[in-house]
Amino acid sequence: MDIILVKLQTNQLNAMKFFYESILGFKVLEEAHNKFTIQTGLTVVTFSDERVTKNPFYHFAFDIPSNQFNSAKEWIKQKVQLSTENDEDEVYFDSIKARSLYFEDPAGNIVEFISRLEDSPKSNLPFTIDHVIKMSEMSLVVEDKITVANELNKMALSERDQQQISTNSLSFIGTRKHPVYLLLVDAKRRWFFSKKEAVVYPQEILLDSGIQITIDDNLQFHIIKL
C-alpha cells in the first residue's frame, strides 16, 4: 500500500505553514484561512485548525534515498534541532536495515526521516526536500488497539510479520515487500526520540487502495472502502 493523503489537526497553523513551506521547502498545493496542503513526494498532507482542540500532535516518517542519510542529516541540521535518544541524534534499525533521524515541527509533531538502505532508491544529486519520496509511516494512536487491529484485518491490513497484535509493543501494519506502514500505537506509550506520550487525536488517512481510515472529532475510529 501507499499513503496518498493524510489530514491532520494543528493549533499552530501559521507557524506550521511557514515551517513546511519556507524552512523545509515543501510545495504548498492549496491554502485557505483554516488549512494548507503540501506535497511530500507521493503523499499529500493537509494541516487544519478547523474544530481543533487542545494541542494535537502526531508521528509520521518520510522516506529519503537509500544513499543520502548523511547528506540529509547535514541538510536538516541547518534548519532544525535534531531530537535525541540516549544522547544520540540518529538510530540504525538492524531488523529493517534503515537509518533514521527525528525532529519536531512547531506543533510538536514527531517527524522522522528514514533511509531504507535496501528498499529506497538512490540519488546522485545533492539532497533537497525534493528528495523526500513519500510518507512511509503514519501513526494511528487508539485506545483499543486490539479492536482496531481486527477492523484493519477485515480490510486485509495486517501486521507486517503476521505476528499477533500486542498492547505491549508497536505494531507495523503493512508488508515488508513494500515498506509503508500504519503504526498502530496504544495511547500513553512514549514516543521514541521524544519525552511525549502518544495521544489520540482526530486524523484521516487515505490509502491508494481506496481504504479511508478516520479518527473523528469524538475520537472514534472508522474504516471504509471508498
Structure description:
There is one protein chain. 13% of the residues lie in helices and 38% in strands. It is built from 3 helices and 14 strands. The strands form 2 sheets. Strands 2-3-4-1-12-13-14 form a 7-stranded mixed sheet, with helices on one face. A 7-stranded mixed sheet has the order 6-7-8-5-9-11-10, with helices on one face. The mean pLDDT is 96.
| Biggest beta-sheet profile | 7 strands, mixed
- Number of E-type strands: 14
The number of helical runs is 3
* Element order: H for helix, E for strand: EHEEEEHEEEEHEEEEE
Distance between the termini: 15 Å
Average of pLDDT: 96
Shape from CA axes?
Answer: globular
Low confidence ranges: none
- As a percent range, the share of helical residues equals 10-25%
- Helix/strand-derived class? mainly beta
Helix-strand blueprint:
Blueprint (H helix, E strand, L loop, with lengths): L2 E7 L3 H11 L3 E6 L2 E6 L2 E6 L10 E6 L4 H9 L13 E3 L4 E7 L5 E7 L17 E9 L2 H10 L16 E5 L2 E9 L16 E5 L3 E5 L5 E5 L1
Parallel strand pairs: 1-4, 5-8, 9-11
Antiparallel strand pairs: 1-12, 2-3, 3-4, 5-9, 6-7, 7-8, 10-11, 12-13, 13-14
